[in-house]
Amino acid sequence: MFNLIYEFKLKPTGAQIATFEEWLEQCRRVYNYALSERKDWVNSCKCPINACSIKSEYIIPADRKAPTYSSQCGSLTQAKKNIPELKKVHSQVLQQTLKRLQLAFEGMWKNGRGFPRYKKAGRMRSFVFPSLSNQPIEGSHVRLPKMGLVKFKQSRSIPEDAVIKQARVVRRASGWYVQLTLQWKVDVPEINPSGTSIGIDVGISHFAAVSNGRLFPNPQPFKRLERKLKSLQRKVTNKRFGSNNRAKAQAKVSRLHERIANTRKNYHWELAHNLCDWAEMIFAEQLNLKALSRGFLSKHCLDAGWGQFLDILSQCCFKRGVYFQKVPAAGTSQTCPKCLKETGRKKLSQRVHKCQFCGYTCDRDVAAAKVVEIRGLQAVGHTVGKLSEGKGHVLEDAKLCLPTTEESPTLSAG
Predict the structure, then answer these.
(1) Alpha-carbon distance 195 to 313, whole Å?
(2) In order along the chain (414 residues), what is the average pLDDT of each group of 10 residues?
(3) I need a labelling partner for 206 at 20 to 30 A (CA). Which of 10, 241, 321, 365 fits?
């Protein structure tokens, strides 16, 4: 089994948009109420056993069990008998909202994330239909439970032998979208490490440096539009809270944020396809993205979106049959790719690598990319020889070679 997610833009009517917004609001209220139950139970267990608070105290019995997903689903069934607004929403949609809260708590327990927070108005942006009919696609419409046929723009064809398992309706600044999860019975061949290879080193001055000497510029979509974003956000603060003008100004801010995200993602996909054109093996660094997002260059690191790029690169390599692997990033800029000796730390202003042992000189990022390639080849079991001038690394036990420095296709993104 192979799972795919296809995203299409919806073209709902005015009545369907009103229903979508009402369902999101009900999902938000259910989420917040379920979170308040769990939060009250946690706080009730914190009070001392020999004294009471001066302000207030919880009256939750000490023997009451902690709220869980199953218990809150039972409470939701009872609440639907007294609250008519909940009956309008599909039952499985509300259950998926409770499961979303459960996953938030599991992420806090297992992955060290923060305590789940309440969602203010407009914060809930999606809801899920976990099951659909046998044939949910009818021409240019998708049939959603308790919603009927909703028109959508089918930008690409859906495989005939794929089964649509679930649908997620998402609200964005540019409109409404549906994400269809497909289950496809297809045999995916295992990709073996063979053929030409390249290493990649990501950075800020250049977004990516390739071991064949290519340097890709950093588009910096957020930095380029930061002044315009600041101006729009200032206009939002000058509007009266709750007014229609403030909502219109906030919509402009949301559309600009989406434009920045789309520009970044489009550049990542084009760069990934360019890299897959050059080699059958691609190696990249295993970065500590959480630490980089908290450093003194955090805004530039987040603007570059290295985590998203590496995920997109792995997906692109998987689709095109290119072997992809991450290698340890420690010391890649402190190692000479020719003699493989440590050259010591370099300042950020030092952009040229010059080895004091063998005299090898090249761009600092390109040298780090070559070291990444060497580590990747060693990880897949190939023996790497010494680096010869202008010919790349000589592999002793396989007929592999680096791409030459001849003219290669350039990236079309800005």
Answers:
(1) 18
(2) 88 96 96 95 78 74 88 94 93 96 93 91 93 90 94 90 92 95 84 90 92 92 96 96 94 96 96 93 92 88 94 93 92 84 80 83 88 90 55 36 36 40
(3) 321
Q: Which two tokens stand for residue 301?
A: 């690191």
Asked whether the beta carbons of 177 and 350 are under 8 A apart, the reply is no
Strand partners, 112: none
Domains and CATH numbers, the chain: 2-41+64-184 (no CATH), 197-395 (3.30.420)
Is residue 372 within 8 Å of residue 283, measured between CB atoms? yes
Contact 172/258 with Cβ under 8 angstroms?
A: yes
- Burial annotation 18-36 (CB, 10 A radius, 16+ → b, else e): ebbeebbebbbbbbbebbe
141 phi, psi to nearest 5 deg = -125, 150
DSSP state of 332: G
Residues 6+ apart with CB under 8 A from 47: 53, 57, 58
Name the token pair of 273: 């396809």
Q: How far is 34 from 97, CA to CA, in rounded Å?
A: 10
Cα Rg of the chain (Å, integer): 27
